[in-house]
S1-like domain-containing protein (Echinicola arenosa), 263 residues
Amino acid sequence: MNEKENMEQNYFSKKMTPKSDSELIEIISSDSFVAEAKQAAAWELDKRKIEHDYKFPEPKQIRNDFEKDYDFKPKESKGWKKYHENRLLFFGLACLVSAIYIIAPTIFTFKTSLTRIDGSLQSADILIEEVSSRNRVGYEAKSRRATLYFSLIGINKRFELMENIGQDYRHEKFSSIKKRLRNSQQITVWIKKGEKEISKPKVFQIDVDSKTVLKFNEVKTEHTGIFAFLLILGFGSTGFVLWRRYPDKFERIFNGKPAANNN
């Protein structure tokens, strides 16, 4: 391998070596891969002497007077430090808000706060749809989400159950509930009393012909793990930032020393 081939490598180069020509061309033309991955695929095609339409970015020019122009003053370092601390603080607060205002209302719901809605089935079906999310490096992750939705005769509400199923094409539990709903005579849906006027209330329990097909405790505790994880991340992140900014106050708290008296 010559000197040029040694230079034409990055993090993705080794991953491109076992791929076929068609896979490499697909990576270059796809929007789901970052620029570094496309560049590594193009290098591999060049080694195989296969034509492609990828345009390599122009190399960045490094100025010789870099050290003269760059200001290495301590205040720059402190500025970057504060910037990252602010981002970490925002992340921690976002975790706490998500845990307290989104997940906690479900976990801390009690059976006495629910009301029942009785009726006969009007319609019931399951929708499987693809969802995607993109990370910081631009890679797009795709999965599938299952939604069981149904309505009752004379009740102006749409009841929904939703869950991510990864790469599966079927949700067995939702399929079983849909079958029970379609073969039912009487359906009871339990929702919060405060959501009686909402068109899409949160469903906490479903009874079909006096038999429970969706249990209250399952709905209440399904996100307990995420709730605890978000609390740990939230308190850990915000606590770390506050400790970095006010180390003296934290030391007094942990050592049991009273606050200084200014009088």
In short: The mean pLDDT is 82.
